[in-house]
């Protein structure tokens, strides 16, 4: 049951018509490179305005936490911005912080009544987190969440390229 609710696809996350996509943001919430830049470009300037308003209110977003905005011009209704850990040495709390990103994002998605949520591979780009280790954490947290909650109904883990897809697929088999 839980397995049918957890999917792995190769896609540009900005094209997905889900209730919420997750953004691998940075703590400033002011946009950046990678998936963050792609999401802001596709959503249009109102997304940055909304992020700036959150920043003015609460001073950005800490690592391992998440905030939610509208999707603006995206097909997705909401964007959940979470700040992944920068990889140091693997012994500096990175695993727990990455797990917290997935958990906090799912908490916000549930609170908004989202039925479908898509995640990019948080921290595995510019932030340098090893992709196979990150995939294992993502799958573990999502499975634990789905086993205990009705919402979201489905979670999609999005790989941007072929190698990332292979890593997610193999982690899905290994952790089963
Ligand atoms: P971080 O700073 O958290 O490492 P990045 O944006 O650099 O974030 O990378 C996170 C992951 O998102 C990487 O695996 C990267 O290949 C992937 N990515 C980049 N652009 C997109 C996109 N448009 N859709 C889905 N995944 C993307």
Describe this structure in words.
The chain is of the alpha/beta class. It has a single domain (2-174), classed as 3-Layer(aba) Sandwich (Leucine Aminopeptidase, subunit E, domain 1), CATH 3.40.220.10. The chain contains five helices and six strands; from the N terminus they run ββααββαβαβα. The chain has helices spanning 34-43, 45-58, 94-111, 131-148, 162-174, and strands at 6-10, 20-25, 66-70, 78-83, 116-119, 154-159. A six-stranded mixed β-sheet has the order 1-6-5-2-4-3, with helices on both faces. The longest helix has 18 residues, at 94-111. The model has no long low-confidence stretch (mean pLDDT 97). Residues 12-14, 24, 34-36, 38, 84, 120-127, 158, 160, 164 line the site of adenosine-5'-diphosphate.
Which helices and strands, and how do they pair?
Layout: E1 6-10, E2 20-25, H1 34-43, H2 45-58, E3 66-70, E4 78-83, H3 94-111, E5 116-119, H4 131-148, E6 154-159, H5 162-174
Parallel strand pairs: 1-6, 2-4, 2-5, 5-6
Antiparallel strand pairs: 3-4
The structure holds adenosine-5'-diphosphate.
Instruction: Output the CATH topology.
Output: Leucine Aminopeptidase, subunit E, domain 1
Number of strands: 6
Listing every helix as H and every strand as E from the N terminus to the C terminus, the arrangement reads EEHHEEHEHEH
Question: Helix content range of the residues, please?
Answer: 40-55%
Radius of gyration: 15 Å
**For the record, what is the CATH homologous superfamily label?**
Leucine Aminopeptidase, subunit E, domain 1
Low-confidence stretches: none
DSSP summary: helix tally: 5
**Percent of residues in beta strands:** 15-25%
Total individual domains = 1
**Mean residue pLDDT:** 97
Shape by Cα distribution:
globular
Give the distinct bound molecules.
adenosine-5'-diphosphate
CATH-defined architecture: 3-Layer(aba) Sandwich
**According to CATH, what is the class?**
Alpha Beta
Q: Kindly, what is the distance between the CA atoms of the first and last residues, rounded to a whole number of angstroms?
A: 12 Å
By secondary-structure content and strand pairing, the structural class works out as: alpha/beta
Largest sheet: 6 strands, mixed
Q: What's the arrangement of strands in the largest beta sheet?
A: 1-6-5-2-4-3
